[in-house]
Amino acid sequence: ADNQINSIIKVEIDLIKRAFARVEPTYNPQFAHIVITKKINDRFFELGGGRDREKYRNPTSGTLVCTDIVSDNFDFFMCAQNVTQGTATPTRYNVVYNSTTLSPDTFYLLTFQQCFNYYNWTGAIRTPACVQYAHKLG
Question: Quick count: other Cβ atoms within 10 Å of Cβ 115?
Fold first, then answer.
């Protein structure tokens, strides 16, 4: 959640860097730490066709919101999955640490592509597969 991001930056990033140093004192790889929030109240809709019942519809798979309603920090919303019933719920991604040279577009593409790597589903799921696997293990 938003209130835990500061502790993540202060505690977890430091622990990750110390773990790298334990491998070898000069070992300093580039990495990014991304906080993913699934339980949010934000919803996005697309304008539909001419029929009243389709005036607003769920966003298409891969819809990305990275301007206007996000903070000045590196965060974005993505609807990776295709929702045919009910209302699509986006996932919020907050890049709290980034020492890589990857562009924001590369982060968006990698994040979206990872949503297709879950073994138990043929399409995209809501979060990257590694997050879903961690959720099942936890």
Answer: 24
Instruction: Name the residue among 113, 39, 105, 110 with its Cα closest to residue 67.
Output: 105
Q: Alpha-carbon distance 39 to 61, whole Å?
A: 19
CA-nearest of 133, 126, 132, 129 to 80 is 126
Contact 108, 78 (CB under 8 A): yes
Could you tell me the CA-to-CA distances from 127 to 101, 132, 135 in Å, in that order? 23, 7, 10
Question: Which tokens hold the place of 19?
Answer: 């773990």
* Alpha-carbon gap, residue 12 to 48, rounded angstroms: 43
What's this model's pTM, rounded to 2 decimal places?
A: 0.85
Q: How many CB atoms lie within 10 A of CB 108?
A: 16
d(C-alpha 11, C-alpha 34), whole Å: 14
Residue pLDDT, tens place only, 41-80: 888 888 876 665 667 888 889 888 888 878 878 999 999 9
Q: Exposed, middle or buried, 81 (CB in 10 Å: 0-12/13-18/19+)? A: buried
Is there a contact between 93 and 108 (Cβ–Cβ < 8 Å)? no
